[in-house]
Amino acid sequence: MEDGDTYTSPSEYVPGTTLRQGLTIAGRFTVEKLAGRGGMGFVYRAIDSRTGQPVALKLLHAVTPEAAYRFKREACLLSELRHPAIVSYIDHGVIEAGQPFLAMEWLEGEDLARRLSRQPLGLSELLALLRRITEALATAHRQGIVHRDIKPSNLFLRGGRPEDVVLLDFGLARHAVPTLVALTATNAVLGTPGYMAPEQASSQSHITPSADIFSLGCVLYECLTGQPPFAAPHFAAVLAKILMAEPPRLHTLRPGLPPGLQVLVDRMLDKDPQRRLPDATTLLESLAALDSDPTLLSLPAPPSEPSSVRATHEQQLVSVEQQLVSILLVSLRPLVTGKLEEDETHGRSLRDALRTMLAPYGGRVELLADGSLAATLVLERDTATDQAALAGRCALTFKERWPDAGVVLVTGLGVLNQSLPVGSAMDRAGQLLRELEGPSASSALVVLDEVTAGLLGPGFQLSRSAAGSYLLHGEQLGTDESRPLLGKPTPCVGRAQELALLEFTFTSCMEEPAARALLVMAPPGTGKSRLRHEFLRRIERRVPQALVLLGRGDPMSTGAASNLLGQALRRLCGVVEVVNLEARRTRLYERVAQHLPLAEARETAEFLGELCAIPFPEEESPRLRAARQDPRLMNALVSKALVTFLRAECAHDPVLLVLEDLHWSDALTVKLVDEALRELAEHPFMVLALARPDVKEFFPGLWARRVLEMPLSGLSPKAGAQLVREVLGARATDSVVRRVVEQSDGNALFLEELIRMEVEGRGEAPPETVLAMLQARLMRMEPEARQVLLAASFFGRTFWPGGVRELLGGQVPDGKLEEHLRRFVQQEIIEPQPESHFPSEAEYRFRHALMVDAAYGLVPGAHRPVGHRLAGAWLESRGESDAMVLAHHYQLGQRPERAAHFHTQAAEQLFERHDLQGTMRCADAALACGVSGEVFTRLRALQALVALSMEQLPRALELGTPVLPALKAGTQLWCRLTAGLILANGFSGNQEETARLGGLLLRTRPGPEAVTVYAAALSQLGSASFWNGGYQRAEAMLERIQEVGADVMAHDAITRGWMRLLKSQLIHFFENKPWQAFSLAEMGTRDFLEVGAERDACMTQIISGDCLTELGDQPRAVECLRGALATVLRTEQHLMASHGRYFLLHALSQGSEPAHQQEACALAHEWMDSEDTPPFSRGMGYAIVAQALGAQGEFHEAEAFARKACELLSPFLVCLLFARGVLSSILLSQERAEEARQVAELGVQELERMGSTGVYAVPLYLALAEACLALGEVSAGESALRRASRYVHERASDIPDATARERFLRQVPHNARTLELARQRWGDSEPG
């Protein structure tokens, strides 16, 4: 035993528990406190009695031979190392209870992981940390020690200083010599996922210092980008990414980094140890080289704004693409025995078995460090459904052989490079595997993602798990089998002609009788299987005695002898699930002998057994023995046996042989069927084959002269619409039907997936299953042609050859590019446009939006920014006028300064078009790019105006108030914002701020281009002023409009319209000229509409509607206001909508129809129930409801509403007049005349202070008169009544039309009531 290896400690210590404070270890280290704990032990802060210094005391509590060995090795290795950046060794030993301990220097600070979670490192800090930790590793590497667990939590920042970093935890360190210990006995990986080198992730035995370089590269990457280079939901998926995937380029996550860092990270993260930097000494040399060239570590200059497009080598879109990949991830955890060598051997044998299974199809398989298997499959020349079917069969085969293994299968995109193609699909696989290994999960079935489930055809039996994933049970094939849609068989639509031909062919077979063959050809997804299913259902109903033989081609066994026929016969005989060979022979013989003599049945069964892979013994059959020695003889006798069997069956009942996916068959099957058709020419025998068009390439001259070909076209739009409506029912709106049918393009599978997504609420998102099928189609193209479409997809659905050429950087010659485009037109992928956005450029359009998504999806995320930068620069050079388009490209191209510029332009353009949501979206996007100064001010002003338009008054004030002083006074934007803030303050009751802004507006002289906007601002300020009772201020605004607009009023209809709007409101609310107010409002409407200013005309129409209410024309008023309000809502003028609603409520409440009264109450309640509604609007709502309740006799509730209205409307004096009149009437109806008089008197006083004889004068004087008369105050009552009567007559005298005047006197309730009371008091001769 080495000196110092054994130490004593108090015997009361129990292993696995913590040490008590004050305990002394080895007579030297006194425990102060527990500092941390892990899975294997505890770390304490202790005091070293020899030095008086604190130490970190690490105590192992899980003492197994392996753990103790590693712990002691850590102590020994650490004792050999001396460097300021390596934690210092002090002592080690074993306490009396048997627990090993290790004493190291005590460090104050935090580890790098904690620092990164709190705050990223600056570039200079990072470089200092990198140099220091590399120096520490160089010390270890020179002594042959590999750390093997470099990660942020093992890098400690002494005092929180990155330049004083210390390397911790040598628990996994080893000398760089081969060893067989890669895993623990419990199959736990030694290392940290996400930071392991590929050689660690694949359980290689020899780990060199370059593994530390890889791990340090992962740390460097995370410090630079804020995320690990390899992250996934499951340990196995992380390991697979380390082995197979490249991390995103640094500049895609953090633009503007020094170029030398990308080169350094690339060399550190190279998956091949031979190409990677071999050790820390070499890394130090690389860092020195970076230091020697300042340009490599200096920040790149910001890119200049492009005046022209230069397609340099660095700018060009790299010819790299993603591919559709199916990934099998297999967890062998349930198969682990705990015996290391046995588990490793078993894992390798399973890996080799899976490799053998996938090798013919180019599949790749890796055994990961945690014992999991990762397999990838890419079929370059087949469809997505083929790939999914093949992968599904592989998964089922593996599961059948090793039922306890957990198997998940996903399909998605990955980058194809010299390693395996993986990407987001691996993340999905990891997520599913993690769910599969959960405590409540069952691994009895293969687990699928949604994409794979959608691609698997009806031949596979699927179900849905409780977690939402899909479970693969097995394969199926039968007459009743069809692809379910929403749990039900898919309705068969649009195939009436095809079904009629199939039924006619089968009928003619029976009636003549005669052999017939019919070949249905169509691309995948067109609906061949659905057609077959419907045809067999009809045969089953019409000719139940017919014998139906079913066989399906399989890509896993393409070319295998007679696979379709053998499958059909095995299924007929019921031997599919029978394992025992003798039982299978018996079943085959019994079925063959049903209609054959016994002597003939024996030999027929023997040779059909060769076809079905059910071999019979040859001892008693010389012909069978001879045939097995002679392939030609065997073929002849098998053919004879098949014909003999089929002839016997046809003699009893018609026979229908269905061969699905014939393109995956073999030549012998085709030959046997051809011979059967010839020999059974006069028998009721029909062959229905279904295949893709390339079946003619695989089998030239297929059944020549004996087969009728039936190409199957896509579903017609009418048939597609029928299916959508049948399945979706009431959810199938016309817009949904149009979108789904257009996207499906007649493809039945696409259509079903789109319908399914619509039901799941994902109708707007591109369906992944459909995209996968389209991407597989793209991958079957030649690479150059595919690159053209990938480049075109950057522009969206519309593109131009010049732009494509720019993105490809001249890689495709002009003539070749035009040739590709012509071919795409012929293939109906794109279509030329008659006119081009750019006159000098031809324009093309993808026929279907999903093809754009599919092509763009093949471009790796790391390569998309350069494509968008090139697209944006090319469009800008061609004079693209849509700023949003340019902003979109520069945003995705990671050029924030250019994106901000065009987002700002787009926000201003959208605001002019009154696209409020678009304005706010673009303004937010521009601000997110980090704008400042004048641009920031303009954007905030636009956001404030949008908030105002959406009736978000507090938000408008919060955004607009701080930036108004920074805008140039008198400009259009300043005028708009000032007017908006005046309205927001006015409707919020902020009278002082409203007055201040009003004064500022009046003192400002607008620029020539801003006169119209200035007039609008004054008109809005005037409105705010008179709502608050400021008649003189409003008149001043009117005079200012007339002064400023004097030179333009004659020819500027909008300025004229704003002037007439303000003037009509002043007359309406303050003067006794109702007809003049109405006429001015009508003229203002005509002014606005003269120049198409529909939005501005809404306000004058609203005033017209209220004038009509006051004139007694209630039906016309309601019609006018409904129309104006509809336009206001359509054009998103939310603040104006409040005015429109109020005046509509007022009009409805004045009518005699009960329906109008009920509607008024319902609309008012909507206002009152919303806390977001401004006080003005809520107050008017309360007043209207109070008036309606009073009319219904609900006086108590009406009074409460009226009082609430008066409270809310106290800042809005004009509206308060109306509320006081309502409250007074309600109080009088309750015989509370004194209170009624007090309220009415308040209203009259306010009316007289304002000098108003407008719309609310008569109701208030009438209320006061009635209250006084009820109290017996005759003089005061009659005085008020005379005033009311005089105003009625004066207002009537303003109406030139006799009919309208009579309506005004009789149909307006307060007018009629006033005249009736006057008549009661004085008869027809009213005193003056």
TrEMBL record:
Gene3D superfamilies: Phosphorylase Kinase, domain 1, Tetratricopeptide repeat domain, Transferase(Phosphotransferase) domain 1. Pfam families: AAA_16, Pkinase. GO terms for molecular function: ATP binding; protein serine/threonine kinase activity. InterPro entries: AAA_16, Kinase-like_dom_sf, P-loop_NTPase, Prot_kinase_dom, Ser/Thr_kinase_AS, TPR-like_helical_dom_sf. The keyword ATP-binding applies. Keywords: ATP-binding, Kinase, Nucleotide-binding, Transferase. SMART domains: S_TKc. Residues 29-296 form the Protein kinase domain. The keyword Thylakoid does not apply. It comes from the Bacteria. This is Protein kinase domain-containing protein. The lineage of its organism: Bacteria, Pseudomonadati, Myxococcota, Myxococcia, Myxococcales.
